[in-house]
Amino acid sequence: MTLKTLLCAATALTLSAGFAQAQDKTLTISAYAFAQDEFSEILYKPFEAKCGCKVVVETGNSVERLAKMEANKDNPVIDMAVMSMADALAASRSGLTDKIDTSKLTNYGKLYDIAKDPNGDGMSVGYTFYATSIVYRTDKMKIESWADLLKDDIAPHIAFPNITTNQGAPALYMVGKALGSDSADLQVPIEAVGKKASEIVTFYVKSSQLVQLMQQEEIWAAPIGRFSWAPFTKLDLPLAWATPKEGQTGGMNVMVVTKGSKNRDLALEFMDYWLSTEVQTKLANALVDSPANSEVEVSEEVANNITYGAETAKTLTLLPSAVSLDNRDTWLAEWNAKVSQ
């Protein structure tokens, strides 16, 4: 065998090994189950082409995904995950996540301030947030304050989120602020809602049921997350998104890196790609996620259907994760005693 033949054979072997290595490079993520077709088209497939790797996605609700992370704490099976702020703090407290090296995120500086370190522990980065306010019939009422929901002529026509939902505690907190209480125990708003419990149409668990209730005119108002707003705009009814004087509340979903991940650098590369202006713009235009990247620009039509813009980001009053985690049991006990009795 000639030297040239040997060199060619060695080169081919090296290229083959490199290709196989790229194919074996797998990033496993844990994510919400919704809009996976859109995420695949906009995020997963383009990233796979960019990194020469495979993205494996595991889905499920937050409780299931946190439980799996805990069960595999000593030998992690996922590299990164997305979850709510409160769940991220719970994961951090359980030693399931690592501090994020934001120096490796080239798009970190583009994020709104509220998304840069939502829990103040350096363990998560926000990638999307949403406002929570009140959708209401403009021909039936005027909503200027969260406390208006409990007025005698309005309460019998509203749906209010159950305390067990993501909207429940934040909505109660804003009602409390309107009533002059800023306490994390939520006793004032829970008691106020409890006094009107027999009049309120329903304490909803799923926001999807509200569109039908509104269409059938069984309700005229309800606190909802902005991600639920789009279906209401399709109803042939005079509906508006309230801007209460106390402001809006909301929530944020964040990214975390699993402690002990064998693909930490690849996870950070994927997170950075997700936070890019290009990807965040595409997700916003698909009405999948509201952008945490401040450089994203969308049409007025799209902006009206998502949580968008610097001014909106500044006006959101987010319930701190520690407050949610440390008070959940107390809130539920109070709610069961005064509202669900």
From TrEMBL:
**Extent of the signal sequence:** 1-22
UniProt KW keywords: Periplasm, Signal
| Pfam families registered for this protein in UniProt | SBP_bac_8 (PF13416)
Transmembrane segments in this chain: where? Answer: none
Is Signal included in the keywords of this UniProt record? yes
Q: Which InterPro entries match?
A: SBP
* PANTHER family in UniProt: ABC TRANSPORTER SUBSTRATE-BINDING PROTEIN, THIAMINE-BINDING PERIPLASMIC PROTEIN-RELATED
Q: What is this protein called?
A: Polyamine ABC transporter substrate-binding protein
